[in-house]
Amino acid sequence: MPILHCTNVRQRLCSMSAVAIIALATCMSSQAAQSGHEVIGDWKFTSVLEGVEITSIDERQAKQLLGQVMAIRKEGVRFGDQQCGAPSFESKRVEPNMYVRREAQISARKLRLPNPVTVVDIGCTQVFIKQPNQAVIFWDGFFFGAARIKYPESARR
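The structure assignment produced for this chain is given below.
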């Protein structure tokens, strides 16, 4: 970031600009820190999008996970009989093609992610937020399309 240089004629305006820049940076960093919590909820696996070269399961087993639900909570993550500890919910905005190529050694083309995409660390894996109720979740070497399950208001009580 360039250093602001203020002359005495523009000192007041420049000082206000510096304060605005600091306030904006603070707001953006706190917003990024909070954005990871938007993955809390129940996510139904809807499609197998892509697998990496070395996986824990084969494609047939990956397809058997469709319809299953991953529960993401502040206390931990549960998927079937597997549980992970409390997630950090650390999130970052990344360019999907570069990030997926670097992290998984595959193309992100089949994942159809927005650019940039928010990636949230949930401890045992990562969630890529496509839209508020659509995500891509990496599990056992495969990228799965997932949809947030919306429960009726009466079921939440």
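Interim note for the steering committee: The CA atoms of residues 129 and 135 lie 5 Å apart. The chain is about 25% helix and 30% strand.
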